[in-house]
Automatic annotation (TrEMBL):
Pathway this chain belongs to: One-carbon metabolism; tetrahydrofolate interconversion
Designated gene of the protein: folD
Reaction(s) this enzyme catalyzes, per UniProt: (6R)-5,10-methenyltetrahydrofolate + H2O = (6R)-10-formyltetrahydrofolate + H(+); (6R)-5,10-methylene-5,6,7,8-tetrahydrofolate + NADP(+) = (6R)-5,10-methenyltetrahydrofolate + NADPH
Keyword match Amino-acid biosynthesis: yes
Residue span(s) of domain Tetrahydrofolate dehydrogenase/cyclohydrolase NAD(P)-binding: 172-317
Record protein name field: Bifunctional protein FolD
Length: 320
């Protein structure tokens, strides 16, 4: 069996050409504002990639450089101003990695307005659990200021809720990218056993819901095992003792976005499986062993990443 290794760069270039043709017919280029945090190297890299791609297709891309140390009230005001600006058509915030927050000192947390409003116990906040809860609440407050009709990466709870109800207009860029890759692989999702590894709010969960809505038999998994399954065209949480390894054994399509390098090896998979690796900067799958089993596989880098960038730009046009 010959394995198809997906060329994400080539696929994204084709999509960019189609997008550029549409935008060339506009009187003025649409404006996309991307807010990113300078302390997070991955956010800086991703923002640069988006800016270059936007330039190629004719989008007016404006990168706003901020800091996690900025007062939260100032950040909220800036996001609110962009949301209310009628000349801005799309707005997104690049979420910094958890490691960025864990490096902050207590004084820096306080100046950012986080401890002042959320924490009573400094020692708790600087445990790993405390930092994660504090940063999650901080992020939620920022996202809530994005106007849903300008939410180009589908971060706002209103837009995520529409996905869960099957009434979405746009999808998170990575989810849109994954679905387009599965379509390119010529997979008929109806009745297919699909395992989604990773349950984040912007990739794993919404992806699992959309796959279920399209008739797939979905198992949503954490690295420890199955946490939700589809029934009909809906996804339901389960108290399952089924391990990830067991779920993978029967999977016809595997999408992994766990962030755990080489979590999935070929020994766990059946012959002919379609595998989409969303891991970054390292892949979630052990490429060499999985390739021996897969009929279709995405590499890291050069797979999902380039398609995610162009999918974000396509979302902007859907909001116009």
């Amino acid at each position: 069996m010959k394995t198809v290794v997906f060329d994400g760069k080539k696929f994204a270039q084709q999509r960019e050409e189609e997008l550029r043709a549409k935008i060339s017919q506009f009187d003025k280029p649409p404006v996309l504002v991307s807010i990113y945090f300078r302390e997070d190297p991955a956010s800086v890299v991703y923002t640069n990639l988006k800016q270059k791609a936007a330039g190629r297709v004719g989008i007016d891309f404006r990168a706003e450089n901020v800091s996690v140390r900025d007062d939260i009230d100032v950040l909220l005001k800036n996001i609110r101003n962009f949301s209310q600006n009628r000349h801005v058509h799309g707005l997104m915030i690049q979420k910094p990695s958890q490691a960025v927050f864990e490096q902050l000192t207590s004084q820096e947390w306080a100046s950012a307005g986080t401890l002042r409003t959320l924490a009573k116990n400094l020692t708790y906040f600087f445990s790993r659990e405390g930092a994660e809860k504090g940063s999650a609440e901080w992020w939620k407050r920022l996202v809530m200021e994005i106007a849903p009709h300008k939410d180009v990466d589908c971060l706002h709870p209103v837009n995520l809720g529409r996905i869960y109800r099957g009434k979405w207009r746009i999808l998170p860029a990575t989810v849109r990218a994954i679905l387009s890759i599965i379509e390119y692989a010529d997979v008929n999702l109806s009745g297919k056993k699909v395992v989604v590894v990773g349950r984040s709010e912007i990739v794993g969960k919404p992806l699992a819901h959309v796959l279920a809505q399209r008739g797939a038999l979905v198992s949503l998994c954490a690295s420890t095992g199955v946490v939700a399954k589809s029934r009909g065209k809906q996804l339901f949480a389960v108290r399952s003792h089924q391990s990830l390894a067991s779920a993978l054994t029967d999977a016809e399509v595997v999408v992994s976005a766990s962030g755990k390098p080489r979590l999935i090896t070929g020994e766990r998979l059946k012959q002919g499986v379609v595998v989409v690796d969303v891991g970054s900067p390292e892949g979630d799958i052990d490429f060499d062993t999985v390739k021996r089993k897969a009929s279709f596989i995405t590499p890291v880098p050069g797979g999902v990443g380039p398609v995610t960038v162009v999918s974000l730009l396509e979302n902007l046009l859907l909001l116009l």
